[in-house]
Amino acid sequence: MTFVGLDLGSHEFRAVELKETKKGQTELVNYAASPAPPHFLASDSEVDWTNFSKALEKFYREAKFTTKNVVSALPESQVFTRVISVPKMSGKELDNAMKWEAEQYIPIPLEEVSLDYQAIGYAGRADSIDVLLVAAPLTLTKKYLKIIGDAKLEVIGLETEALSTARSLVGQDTTAPTTMVVGIGARTTDISVVSGGFIRFARSISTGGEAFARAVSQELGFEIGRAREYMRSYGLEESQLEGKVMRAIKPIFDVVVSEVKRSIAYYASHRGDDVIERVIVSGGVANLPGVLVYLAAALNLEVQLADPWEGLVIPGKFSREELEDIGPRFAVAVGLALKDV
């Protein structure tokens, strides 16, 4: 059986189809991306939802995926993800305790959210365990289920973007180095820390590629489309175009860097025995010239470009060069497809 990971980005549809081979490996079957109607997540209009569903149905049909079974992701900025420490207890006791614990951390009534949790092990003290707590507003899940369902697709799972990205870029290898994943999307930057095969920290900030493009537009007097092109071409390269694009982007990008540093410091203060050893950058901004070098210098850490295709069987019909280029944008979609393969 094959599954499609469907990433409904704020500006782009991205989808990946994977299957398990007879040898137990996971093989790439298909992938596709296409511009999406903007701003649908911010809209409460069912007319907008219908238009989005029609565009999604058209994208899916033209991409020629072989299954309608999809796993999709909820935007990290609109869900509540928190790692909490609780006293060691049995599974049944934990079930009973989670409602009370969740009420302390979730800012909306529990009857208005879909709540899930996962015990993720040792919390630094022998008498405690860490629990990953995730709550999604029911209004959000209903919106996604309706939009995808109206596109004539079958939703077999919903999860957060942080979970799917961690799965595709780090996996559940308990021996992998503690890794911070920084996903710089169009509107937000999602930051998570993966250690021992589990997410130990997650947060989202409201700064992304669109803010960088607006800065370039204002600085150089370009319309936004041209500004995006210049941003993609010159990025944070000081030697390019007399450094004009870099100077426009840098103050906004430094906001992201500052939040990444704060997250590293917070994690170190709470998990002093678990040191972040590397940073993986994903999302549409990850490929901008100079981003990895700038981050590595600012953080004094190893910084890598996201490669969600690593570990997959890639048939010869797919261009390795293209996959490498688009990989950072497809981290969520690959992770979603891996969920049930």
Structure, briefly:
With 341 residues, the protein is an alpha/beta fold. It has helices spanning 46-63, 91-105, 138-150, 161-169, 209-220, 224-234, 244-270, 291-299, 320-326, 331-338, and strands at 2-8, 12-20, 26-35, 69-74, 80-87, 113-122, 128-137, 154-160, 179-184, 189-195, 198-205, 278-282, 302-305.
What does the model show?
This protein has 341 residues and is of the alpha/beta class. The chain contains ten helices and 13 strands. The chain has two domains: 2-78 and 136-210 and 252-338, Nucleotidyltransferase, domain 5 (2-Layer Sandwich), CATH 3.30.420; 80-135, Dna Ligase, domain 1 (2-Layer Sandwich). The protein has helices at residues 46-63, 91-105, 138-150, 161-169, 209-220, 224-234, 244-270, 291-299, 320-326, 331-338, and strands spanning 2-8, 12-20, 26-35, 69-74, 80-87, 113-122, 128-137, 154-160, 179-184, 189-195, 198-205, 278-282, 302-305. It has a five-stranded mixed beta sheet with strand order 3-2-1-4-8. A five-stranded mixed beta sheet has the order 11-10-9-12-13, with helices on both faces. α1 crosses α3 (138-150), α4 (161-169) crosses α10 (331-338) and α5 crosses α6.
Layout of SSEs?
Layout: E1 2-8, E2 12-20, E3 26-35, H1 46-63, E4 69-74, E5 80-87, H2 91-105, E6 113-122, E7 128-137, H3 138-150, E8 154-160, H4 161-169, E9 179-184, E10 189-195, E11 198-205, H5 209-220, H6 224-234, H7 244-270, E12 278-282, H8 291-299, E13 302-305, H9 320-326, H10 331-338
Parallel strand pairs: 1-4, 4-8, 9-12, 12-13
Antiparallel strand pairs: 1-2, 2-3, 5-7, 6-7, 9-10, 10-11
Helix pairs in contact: 1-3, 4-10, 5-6, 5-7
